[in-house]
Amino acid sequence: MSILVDMNTRVIVQGITGHQGSFHTRRMRQDGTNIVAGVVPGKGGQDFEGIEIFDAVLEAKLATGANASIIFVPPKFTSAGIIEAIDAGVEVIVCITDGVPVHEMMGIRERLTQEKTWLIGPNTPGMITPGEAKLGIMAIHAFTRGHVGIATRSGSLTYEIAYELTRAGLGQSTVVGLGGDYIKGTDFIDIVPLFENDPDTRLIVIVGEIGGTDEERTAEYIREKCSKPYVAYLAGRSAPPDQQMGHAGAIVSQGRGTFQSKIEAFAKAGIPVAKYPREVKDIALELLG
Amino acid sequence: MKLYEYQAKKIFRDNSIPIPNGSVCSTEKEARDAFASVGKGKEVILKSQVLAGGRGKSGGIRSAKSVTETVDIFKELMNIHIKGFPVARVLIEEKIEIRNEYYVSITIDPTFYKPILLISSRGGMDVETIAKESPSALGRYIVNPRYGIASGEILGLMRELGISNELSTQLIDIIKKLYAIFIDSDATLTEINPLVESSDGMFIAVDARLTIDNNALFRHPELENLKKDLVDNKETYLKGKGVDFVYIGGNVGLICAGAGMTMATMDLVNAMGGKAACFCDVSAGINPRSMELAMRTVSSLNGVQSILINMFGGLTRMDEVANSFIAAWQNMGGISLPAVFRLEGTNVEEGRRKMEEKGFEIITNLYDAVQKALDLGG
């Protein structure tokens, strides 16, 4: 078991012929992902290394039985691509593109509340269920099959933390990069219930950062509704206020989204927060006995 | 992209939000003329144009009652830094007689992901302070983006804040215009603080803040043009070259890959007794040029005593990172500061071999690397 993606996931690549799209399509295939179609408007009927290309997501889905999509289209067209995939009823959409306007994401977020679709990202390295499916751009050697679920706002820290866990013998059920944007399709609070209900996940790692209120709301949710062990790491203690730290979402604005408020929320929920990335593994080992 | 006050005010004025009479000055002559034209020869307010809050407390906002005083203060302001930011220009404005100060802002709510309007009758202090000291004086209204600002609902909020019907009518008009600016310019934040009720009962935006979503600039060439007026263009310039940089000011210069990793490294440096000098993320493209640019930028920062380069490779291969470093290093003829390299992840063995061949020591453990950077910095 795992969450959202597994060996039965059949993937459409939106923007399969682009620079990023073609490079990562090859890699995802090498890594065992079942890619069944590509979508590029105007290139329907062509193929990419044996993968059939369609003009539209709906066509691709109907012809191939795809249930997931990964988006590599440029920022100007990304939200249209996301909406097309939602509209076609794709179950899981992973949006890699960095640079989607936040006002467009406000509209998409509202639409998602009325749909069953899961949108992961934008501005994410993607997600992986080790050994089954990778919808993303990460190098797989940091990951191995196991029972730790990871949800994260940072790609680079995911590697560091997953790598340490893997070396300590703690593999992962599913690793989800939620992305670095201010408005994401999926937040920690949305993903935690999936891990909580996944029999294969025994411990959940949350890699958060300053900005927004997701960590606070999630800690409260865990305190009230969850029973599995959780470990958190938070980046950005030393960041100055009102300054964006790389990610569009990593900003303390109007006094909200501070490191302090997140630390306090986790403390209140009894969730240990690692002082530095490597300590995540130490705490996980201890909690799993 | 944050706009200067005078840039935001121009957009406000174009949208019929009242602002004080004023003149943006970058020469003494302009300042002298402004005293006569804007201040009617009586009194003017001089406001430093910097992209930092808390200007008043830092001495960046002054008043002057004569031409000589205006010119002296102008010269003084043009030479100071406020919170590390140089002053671009001085906005010279008429003095507004204040009856009351209000606060109005529109941002995107981090919980509901919709526009949120904040209003207070306690303007003039920052919103964090209002929220802490008099939370009941701060009204919040989540906007349904489909319908925009609904006057009736705002009116209820204003009654709760004790604002009279007559003033509310004027305020709602300004709020609706502000909301139109927020939507039309793809803003992430717009704020008027203080929004002054003048002694003759008119509302005037005495300050103005407007931050535009960088991701939406492609739709706003008119705003993109404002960038050329940025006096300290370092961060924008570097961003264009694939280096995500924020100046902080400390003794350890950082060059890292990935936003989360960069923040985590900053945190670790600070936790271990140093102070990170900057946020510097080169993950957008690691090559000899970006590496050299990052090394030149970081090593030239005031107060930096050592440099820590921290890379963890996923897709990025450490042998390529090593190649880029070595090429950049040789091109620069080395740097005068001690540097510590922490490489880990994909192809690290190959990267280590290449670096060691050139006499660089590679540390794989991040904590040891931070300690070494602190030791070398003295």
Oligomer: heterodimer
| Beta-strand percent range of chain A | 15-25%
Instruction: Please indicate the count of domains of chain A.
Output: 2
The tally of beta strands of chain B, per DSSP, is 18
Structural class of chain B: alpha+beta
How many strands in all of chain A?
Answer: 14
Global Rg of chain A: 18 Å
CATH classification class of the largest domain in chain B: Alpha Beta
User: Helix share of residues of chain B?
Assistant: 25-40%
Question: Main β-sheet of chain A: number of strands, strand sense, barrel status?
Answer: 7 strands, mixed
Overall mean pLDDT of chain B stands at: 91
Number of helices of chain A: 9
Q: Write the CATH homologous superfamily of the largest domain in chain A.
A: Succinyl-CoA synthetase domains
Order of helices and strands of chain A: EHEEEHEHEHEEEEHEHEHEHEH
- CATH domain fold name of the largest domain in chain A: Rossmann fold
Return the CATH architecture of the largest domain in chain A.
3-Layer(aba) Sandwich
Indicate the CATH architecture of the largest domain in chain B: 3-Layer(aba) Sandwich
